[in-house]
Protein 1
Amino acid sequence: MSFTSITHTCQYNEEDGTMRMYLRGRPVVLHGPSDQDGLDPAKVAPPPQNKLKLEWVYGYRGKDCRSNLYLLPTGEIVYFVASVVVLFNVEEQCQRHYTGHTDDVKCLAVHPNKLIVASGQCAGHDRVDARPHVRVWNSVSLATLAVLGAGQAERGIWAVAFSRADGGSLLAAIHDAPDHVISVWDWQRSDKGHCLAETKCSVDTVVAVEFHPLDRNQIVTCGKNHIAFWTLDQTNVLYKRMGIFEARDKPKYVTCLAFNHNGDVLSGDSSGNLTVWGRGTNTVQRLVRAVHDGPVFSVACLKHGAVLSAGGKDGRIVMFDADVNPTGLENVIEGHYGGVRVLAEGRGSQLYVGTTKNCILHGDLELGFSPAVLGHVEEVWGLAAHPSLAWFASAGWDRLLQLWDALSHSTVWSKDIEERAQCVSWSADGGVLAVGCLSGRWLVLDPHSRDVLAQHQDGSEPIQTIQYSPDNKMVALGSRDNFIYIYRVEDNGARYSRLGKCLGHSSYITHLDWSEDSQYIRSNSGDYELLFWNATTCRQVTSPSSLRDAAWASNTCPITFTTVGVWPENADGTDINSCARSRDGRLAATGDDFGKVKLYAYPVTQPKSLCHAYGGHSSHVTCVRFTQDGARLLSAGGLDTSLMQWLVD
């Protein structure tokens, strides 16, 4: 969290009470209310007294990351999404968060003492703060113990591992670079650690690194076309021996690693095979063919010696004995959760399963699995808080519409709407839920039965925003095709008849708000216009000053007189994706292109307005919304697929 000071070229005209703001050199004239006292654009407005505290993170990154789910002795599972590492106690339903990273976390490792965690991130927006690096931290206190490799990796850290045979004094990291560098660190030496060795690993992609649990200074890496056995010698030089496959058995990818109780290496590959490599050798001791249809994404050796393998495509989890003979015990996870990305041993016979569709399941092989974490799988843009309950809805390009309970932090339901969704909105009474899609189609659903009550098509471009009028008699839809479509709402939101469309914007519609009396609409567009409309006639109000005293039911339009101060200096006009005002009118929040959620005192009429800024998301923050009671703020992270819930203190 940081203070942000904002200045930009704004001119206030005291005679006619207008603010002229420039976005990318284009002037936007904004009319203040007639009772507006004189504004001094050079004055700085203070930040709000309230602050935000991250309360809950919805989502998990299993789609494209590996080895990222572990159980800690505290009873918490540790995993990541966006730039947050989440510690979630499933039984007690409570979360804690490590928020030291500045961009996407890509990998995770737990120290043999089960207390210390290492996590690696990719390069981010900020040239200095967001260089790729590894952070080592205490999972109980959440204190950062060391930051390793900042400035050394080019694009990101792909995999990390602690040494095991010596009690965990070393850490290995794989850097994503053209030659995939492996580095070994004495991480406890100073808060920046000490790099003992660094060498080119492979021109091919490397997906995993592990220290041998019994043999000191032995490391195994694997990836495209290879498995490699490394030795770190007395002089801290790394030597490599490549694993030798028989020609017909050489897989395209060696995808995962584990060690059995004898110290043999077990590897899974893209052909669905399991291979046992004799301890201390680089030769195949045993090959178990076609265990899975498709790749093996995870191999786990359990406390009692049994071996589990999991399929990334077939979703099967298969149990073997310690000598890799099948036991006949297996289970398949339901296809809509995706394939298995990673297995983590829980208490007793319990397992946690991370999936390729960003879910975490919990259960065992005999009784099956149920979801502990559900999330979106592709970009998420739609977010809407229920007008009276503690519910909120989210919708994304993965065709999923999800209803959540902000108090129990749980999914009420999840529905595949068979269309990629761009926006979502509740009717004014919360009776129905409308979803705007990328195809120009929009659907209205009953939130209790999940039935589709109505569906319409307006144009062939994405519906960017939907807003119901405060009296619930009309709904306005802003489209990428530059038009606003207005419908009359009938039958409690189950039927719609088109009143007309508003023509006048010269670019796509980005946001819109209704006046409190449901008579007028204001809208912003991709070329930074603020236009006003008579809702019943669909005609433009060509004299904006006539609406300077209109009371607006919301402030989702970021280009307004009351949100001048949310725009940073030299803003390009598309930096701010979303804006929201709390129901009591005391706070405004924004989500921007730099992964930041910002909180302002409302109205934000001073061009220079200080705010509180919060990281956590690692992609564009696509939407922010306050809950109906103003006690929480919700944010959607676009490409990072996460939803975050913040307490307003």
Protein 2
Amino acid sequence: MDLNSASTVVLQVLTQATSQDTAVLKPAEEQLKQWEIQPGFYSVLLNIFTNHTLDVNVRWLAVLYFKNGIDRYWRRVAPHSLSEEEKSTLRAGLITNFNEPVNQIATQISVLIAKVARLDCPRQWPELIPTLLESVKVHDDLRQHRALLTFYHVTKTLASKRLAADRKLFYDLASGIYSFACSLWNHHTDTFLQQIFTGDEAAATSSLERTLLSLKVLRKLTVHGFVEPHRNVEVMGFLHAVFERLKQFLECSRSIGTENVCRDRLEKTIILFTKVLLDFLDQHPFSFTPLIQRSLEFAVSYVFTEAGEGVAFERFIVQCMNLIKMIVKNYAYKPSKHFEDSSPETLEAHKIKTSFFTYPTLMEICRRLVSHYFLLTEEELTMWEEDPEGFTVEETGGDSWKYSLRPCTEVLFIDIFHEYNQTLTPVLLEMVHSLQGPTNVEDTNALLIKDAVYNAVGLAAYELFDSVDFDQWFKNQLLAELQVSHNRYKPIRRRVIWLIGQWISVKFKSDLRPMLYEAIRNLLQDQDLVVCIHKYDFEFRTEQFLPYLESMFTLLFQLLQEVTECDTKMHVLHVLSCVIERVNIQIRPYVGCLVQYLPLLWKQSEEHNMLRCAILTTLIHLIQVKYQNLPDTFSHLYILCDILCWLVTLENSPCLTPELLRIFQNMSALLGESYEFD
């Protein structure tokens, strides 16, 4: 493809490919697809997206086609691969100027340069890194930023390579540029702090962006660039400097207020500092040993003392808690049962942990977690009041402990209590004993404290097995609290039934269960509490449960119809399936309504595969109950499931295919067996 003659044609087709008219768009896309394998096509694209006078949408599309072409045709072994001559020209053109004025296009150019670097740097592209290092030194703000952006994406990409030879190359690169990267970060950080305190917001915003990018580069170099980073003075110096910089940035966030334009970027930078520590701890636990004491002092200070008040924001608190948790749980820091079998590094780390987590420190952490972080907030109480089902679903999200404050505090509490249960058990029991008897419904704070303490006892159930007589507690206090009907006592009733659910598989006498069933039946009639009841694990003796079977099943079925969240319906179906499975044929008089409802629920759950799985599970239990006393039950159950799966397959197939016809050849035998059976 001749560059001079082709540029105009390609530009015209790219312009057509940005059209909203499909009659224009489709032919243009087809033409571009044909050109992808033509020699010279990517050189034309390079000329187009580096021409700042052209339409932004056209240049954006040119960048995307270039980037996709790297994935498909840059490797030597790829079909229709680019020639070495053209690749050499393209590499030179990509780093000639770092002056792209449009942020989105600049990011895409940086990403595509990183893609080429992953394949060619440093062997076929030795000039890339030196060019980037020179370009980040220039005084032109735009060029400096674009070069720094590219430097980050290249570093990030090279750090992700995992083959031994590639790791060796990255180690060499990190050793060669680490000092420069540190000085670059320090320069931009100092510049930002000076500008923000003199009130130059525009300049500070620009410097903060460079601080963030240079810190991202250092994060990759520090975490992935050294085999034994603790032996490198500059690496450890940078990591120690992180704590000082964190303090400066936190104080800065306090002073600039929430309306400042830098606020969002400032918080992102603070979080990035914590990610540096978390990543380093994850990848190099023994190299992190010299930082354990300082990390714990820093995190505990901001999370569990007055030092964090007015400074620490929620995401930062979560990150600090994750740092504490990772140190507490780290297996590298746990000596074996026989100390002499442990490595010196493990013993050293364990010694530092032990000296830090003294009784006063652990007691303060425990009390603060329960009495401060476990308390339901006004926002949570309002959400529960307005949307109890949505509140329950949000509260039990999958990986939310990593990012949300409440789940994170609970996970930290569990880990610390497990690690130091002998120290913390008396502390928690003292809190429980202070809450004996009913709580004044007019005292909102006392109700919230009780809810928090009960939450802690539920989370630590396995650790408290030998320390709490749960049966007596249930009879003497918890059962009575379930019967308090005042509207303000709802949080306690909800928490008590959850608490019993936590303990029932740990320690709960079977002869107490009829009393519990009675309480649950009453709670199921409370529409505000109903969404938490379905979490209850119905472990029971059938003969004890039969007197409550009809009313319980009816209430659960009503609940299934009333709730709207997919997650809630799944849990209710799970409980219903458990009940059907346990009471077996005793359920037959009551399941008619459920059998009629399941087809409707199936239609309503088209977009929820997990809910459909729960429906199938319930259906299997119903089939087992129906054919309980007939011969060859299980073989015919499988036949029925096969037929149901065939029906679902047909319903979701857009057309009849040869593969479906081949499967259908097996169906006649299954259908024949089914007709003979029933």
